[in-house]
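Help! Submission page says 'invalid entity' but I think these are all valid:
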Amino acid sequence: MRVSELSVESGVAIATIKYYLREGLLHQGRQLAATRAEYDDSHLRRLRLIRALLEVGRLPVAAIKQVIEAVEDESLSVHHMLGTAQYALGPTIEPEPGEEWDAARGQVDLLIEELGWDVAATAPARDELTQTVIRLGQLGLSSDLTVYAQTAQRLVTEVEMDTVPFDGPREAAVEALVLGTVLYGRAFDALRRLAHESESARRVGGVPENPSVPENVDGSGQPG
Amino acid sequence: MRVSELSVESGVAIATIKYYLREGLLHQGRQLAATRAEYDDSHLRRLRLIRALLEVGRLPVAAIKQVIEAVEDESLSVHHMLGTAQYALGPTIEPEPGEEWDAARGQVDLLIEELGWDVAATAPARDELTQTVIRLGQLGLSSDLTVYAQTAQRLVTEVEMDTVPFDGPREAAVEALVLGTVLYGRAFDALRRLAHESESARRVGGVPENPSVPENVDGSGQPG
């Protein structure tokens, strides 16, 4: 297809497609003449991935470029490629060396080891978790994250990773990982807040515990 | 204690304390003389709450003011007060009326009803979830969030709400809710990404499935 059709099919403006071509995010089409090139499904797939990284992952163009490079470099394993995308999605945490940091990091590493997880020593989420453990401790909250970790493992193993097509085109695997990480993460966060509200109603809202009671007599289920 | 001691005890600068007093976020001390006032534990507790809302919750001062008003208005139930804080923590989503929105919102409402959750019809997380369901559908991902909802419920019911002291000072309950929502949310998100990496290694990394094997021969457990 021509660039105009690629634009219609993908929903990406022609000027934007040309920008992606110049930046090397989108691979060149098959050149038919000096000003005409032919594009195919691989370009559509790539544009879908770029949009996912940009609009859902909210990654800056420089990070998108890194992810695309890992997609294009077929000498990299699918695992390495997915790791590049996953690492780009998380925040970058600067370690704060010192006793407090080392102790919290030790706690995080031990947790991951006890769970038997196969995670690189350099995974940035280890630092992110270390910072959160320190903050929890400073604020007097429990930093025992075992139940959270087991819950995350169950969700990822039993539900989430099944949405990633490991056997298809490399773009499709990365796209599914990015969309799943961000969107299911957002959904879980909203559901957790709704569960908070419901549990708070049950504990102190004065709402009858039996949900089949037809009316919420004191209206206390409406905190907002 | 005097304002200088309050500053030392709380770790909040005197100028900042005076700003909170002027803004009405911190209640006045007991006036001893024209320029001297006496502060007590209730002020320390309030400063802790303000810091939690500001530094961990990252709420703007206007939102903090709303939460503080709900804390101070003892005619409001603890449930209503916690709801005010919880609602302030989430993003504000503008509904996009139309068939797509209504269908997704119907799906969200049905999910909450089927779970038997006691959640206000006006809870903003319903809109947030609606928007995510639409996005999942547009991108061809499953919008069945039942397992996520059940998982969130289990975490909140069995672990998270136990950290909220419903019987103590109102400030303490709000503080625990805010810190728990934000910090455990952050921890879960990081753990989920680590679980992704581990599960990806297990599925495609070529790592021996038996974790007791001493060496990761091809180094593919290291995506970064």
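Support: the input was valid. A stray whitespace character was the problem, and the output above is from the cleaned input. Chain B touches chain A through 90 residues (CB under 8 Å).
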